Amino acid sequence: MIEARATARFVRTSAQKAGLVLALIRGKDVNRALATLRFTKKSVAGDIAKVLRSAIANAQQKDGFSGDVDRLFVHAAYANQGPSQKRVRPAPMGRAFRVLKRTAHLTVQVAERPEKIAPVGGDAPKRRPRAGAKKRAG
């Protein structure tokens, strides 16, 4: 199973706001995740879409990749807190308020879904009726 990841560091948003959008795409197929991000009305969705496209490209470059992008899904998506920029805002009567301009580190990890193995036609066990079940008159 191929796994690839991409990160964007020092994105100018808080990790909490980015985490809300990342929760929308976690576990989805990559095509559905990109469509979800395209129609999400949060400004960080564009940055997350960029990171997701980078993770898909990283998966395509790995050895052993099947070549089918439709089998990729978002395995993990999370936002960690980055460094905060401290700024000072003037306040009345000579005071000052501190303003924290937060940043976040976004990480998206994609993986390839394993192929489903179907059982061979004649080896499937027969279902027996439950004990006490009535036969239908048909």
Short description:
This protein is 28% helix and 29% strand.
Set down the secondary structure blueprint:
Elements: E1 3-11, H1 15-25, H2 30-38, H3 44-61, E2 72-81, E3 85-90, E4 96-101, E5 104-112
Helix pairs in contact: 2-3
Provide an overview of this structure.
This protein is of the alpha+beta class and 138 residues long. It has a single domain (3-114), classed as Ribosomal Protein L22, Chain A, CATH 3.90.470.10. The chain is built from three helices and five strands. The chain has helices spanning 15-25, 30-38, 44-61, and strands at 3-11, 72-81, 85-90, 96-101, 104-112. It starts with a strand and ends in a 26-residue tail after the last strand.
Q: Can you give keywords for this protein?
A:
138 residues, alpha+beta, Ribosomal Protein L22, Chain A, three-stranded antiparallel beta sheet, two-stranded antiparallel ribbon, 3 helices, 5 strands, 28% helix, 29% strand
CATH architecture: Alpha-Beta Complex
**Domain module tally:** 1
User: Which parts are unreliable, with pLDDT below 50 for 5 consecutive residues or more?
Assistant: none
Helix content: 25-40%
Classify the fold: give the CATH topology: Ribosomal Protein L22, Chain A
* Beta content: 25-35%
Q: Which series of helices and strands comes N to C?
A: EHHHEEEE
Characterize the main sheet: 3 strands, antiparallel
How are the strands ordered across the major sheet?
Answer: 1-5-2
Structural class: alpha+beta
Mean pLDDT: 91
Radius of gyration: 24 Å
Give the oligomer, counting copies of the same chain as homo and different chains as hetero. single chain
CATH class: Alpha Beta
The CATH homologous superfamily is called Ribosomal protein L22/L17
The tally of beta strands, per DSSP, is 5
Number of helices: 3
How far is the N terminus from the C terminus? 49 Å
